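tool_call: predict_structure(chain=1)
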Amino acid sequence: MTRRYLLALSLIALLALSGYLTFDKLAAQHDRTLGLVNISGRQRMLSQRTALYAERLVRDDCPEPVDVCHRILGEATDLLEDSHRALTRGSAEMGLPVAKSPEIRALYFDGAPSLDQRMTDYLAALRQILTATRAGDDTLALDAYRRVVRESSGPLLDDLDRLVARHQSEGEAALEHLDRAESAILALTLLTLLLEIVLIFRPMVTQIHRQFAALDHMTAALRRSRDGLEDIVEQRTADIDRARAEAVKASHSKSRFLAAAGHDLMQPLEGAMMYAGALGRQAETDRARQAVAELKNAHQAMSRLIRSILEISKLDCGAVEPLPRVFALGPLLDQLVGEVQPQAQAKGLRVRRVWTSARLETDPLLLERILRNLLANALRHTHKGGIVLGVRRRADGLDIAVADSGIGIAAQNLGRIFEAFIQIDGGQLDRSEGLGLGLAIVDRLSRLLGLDVSVRSRLGKGTVFSLHIPSGALADDR
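tool_result:
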């Protein structure tokens, strides 16, 4: 189908080009014939005009001054010579080639003397009349005038009339031939279009109709499948919603249970701590005292873990409610730096803070818990260098930053550090200490207070945690 269509288009393009070339040739032939006829007619008129003025000059019977008659005869002679040259030798200016028709060339050049020779002699006689009359040589002028009268009185005019008729006849024949060719090309073009409609477009339209019908069937089938899928998706979505609601309900129940049972869970641990203290006072050997010390360390680790679990459970079930009040931020930062200073010195680390006079309106205990967890995290993962606790003012509030020179966090793990039960040591997951709840508590407390916490880090270079306090929570900006 495509090949036939391309073939038909190529044929139509070829016919259109042929029609254009034929029309162009037809127009050129028409212009050529019209030019030949005009020149031939002008040649006949000029021969009569030159004969008239030659007679007036020879008989000295010019109605105008003699020099005017000379000028008119000279101009007419020049025009007659140009016309003769155009018809016998061609004219690039007029678009006339040398005559190729044997009949027309025979009219010009056959015979003794030929029409070409007679016209040449006629022009020479006219120029002789001009020269003789200007010089006053009446004998020479009269002799030339006799030759002019002999040619212009009949024979020359008759031959020129035959040439005009012949040019016109040949031109009309050529025009008729080209006209027939143009009609034939038009007929072929119309026939090609008709065949294209019958052999190409009708089958193409039929095929398109069949394709549209098949497409309608497919659309209907897809619509039925879509309706069925929508029902399945709706059912699955309802099942997922129910399962999620049950999971959320179970999680809240678990969190509420842990929050409510916190006191009961801590009581046995406190009792165990008391017994461990009593046992330590009665230990008599170094081995017994070492065992009691290890027991106390295990107890403290377990207490921290249980307190973290209880705290995040309270946050998840909504049992923690902020109690905002206005307080100075500087003393709180001093207190936190003082708490971590002994542990930092034990590891050979420097801890410093940037002084601030800012006053905030938020829950100071929850903010203290956030910053304490961030400092503890920095202390745990920093082995050389130091830790800075600083404050930076911004146009929309201020940032409290905890910066360390520790091991850093790989870029692919930055998005996971605030997840519960996830600990990342540099580029790897770390389960060596704790449950990974410190940063999860920071994330939940920050959201509870309406604060934004962010982190940027370079592996092996250190980490900076920033807590953004909006301007609405700055008491000294009011």
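agent: The chain has eleven helices and nine strands. Proceeding to next step.
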